[in-house]
Amino acid sequence: MISAAIMEWERAPAVDDELDRARRRDPDALTALLMRYQHRLYRYLVRMVHDPAAAEDLFQQTWLRVIEKIGRYDPRRSFEAWLFTVARNLAIDHLRRQRTESLDDPGSPARPPVSNPDALERCLADEQVRTLQAALAELPGVYRETVSLRFEQDLKLEEIAEVVEAPLSTVKSRLRRGLEALRQKLGAGFDREDRP
Amino acid sequence: MNEHLEVKELLPLAASGALDASERRRVLQHLAECARCAAEERQWGSLASALAGAPRSQAPAGLAERTRARMLAALDERTERRWNNAVLAGLLLLGWSMGLPALALLRLVRGDLPASLDIDAAGLLAWLAASTVFAWITAGVAVLLIGNRRETVWRNL
Predict the structure, then answer these.
(1) ipTM beyond 0.85?
(2) Per the CB 3.0–4.6 Å rule, which of A118, A151, A174, B2 could disulfide with B51?
(3) Host domain of residue B142
(4) Does the pTM exceed 0.95?
């Protein structure tokens, strides 16, 4: 119950007054935004860079960049989309420096489907959740990002398009391909009919 | 591509709540008539539910507090930078305003002074104007350099 309330608070849009004060770089308003978005932003960065330590560093850089740029934030836009765009640009810079992964590279072809008819049952337990998380982590960057923004950050498609600076049709295509690749990795047993 | 294949492609998006109204109607209409697609749709729904319901990790304890401390320090730095820039601008303005009385004073004495120094009054004025302009340009360049340096420091925070 409490966690549900926290999730609801996390998802709640920042009130206009708070954003107005944040745009004037009011420390209390900026702190309130930091507290409100800390978990979602951190999750997103971990999902992007696969490295908790780097995600922590990028998290801090994101908020410093927010201070620098918030005066130019257009209040007619979604603050969440703007915030995730700032974080995404920093994460991309980080990945470029790492030179190990590119978000624009769809990556190697997906592996052959795993033959596992009990995938759904396994996903209901902790170990199985890890399976899902691992499969998600193995997705190529562009797909992983889109799936994460939709299902973990609860962003609307229009907001995702704003974050990734791509047309809505591209976002839909990435989401579809990402889910197809994810399902392929998990095998064919993901059927709700198997659930009790 | 026939209707069946087209709708099949839309099923992952349907499970993600990513279809517009007309696409949704089309999918629902097809699902009512196609058992295979209906089964497929349930599988996509199952995957979407698992993704949406997966436990969500939290930011490490203390990360928000550390970030907040850095934010406040950056805000202080920013305030100081703005204050320094204002001071520099004020000094520039002061230097400019100091030049004006000097010019007036020179005009007051230029009747005798240029003659005794054997300097042409027009030449003296030109020299004074050039000196003043040079001083302004120097001050302006200094302001730009200092501002640029501070901008670099700010970005590297």
Answers:
(1) no
(2) A151
(3) 63-155
(4) no
Residue B127's closest CA among B98, B95, B102, B91?
B102
Q: What residue has token string 């003043």? A: B132
- The residue ranking higher by pLDDT, A89 or B133, is A89
Lowest mean pLDDT among B17-31, B76-90, B120-134, B140-154: B140-154
Q: Which of B101, B90, B157 lies closest to A62 in space, CA to CA?
A: B157
Q: Are residues B35 and B73 in the same domain?
A: no
Domain tally, chain B: 2
Q: Is residue B58 part of a domain?
A: no
Chain B residue with Cα closest to A171: B18
Q: Check whether residue B133 and residue B70 sit in a common domain.
A: yes
Nearest chain B residue to A158 by CA: give it: B18
Inspect the interface and report whether the beta carbons of B63 and A193 lie closer than 8 Å.
Answer: no
User: Using CB atoms within 10 A of its CB, is residue A119 exposed (0-12), middle (13-18) or buried (19+)?
Assistant: buried
* CB < 8 Å to A120, chain B: 46, 50
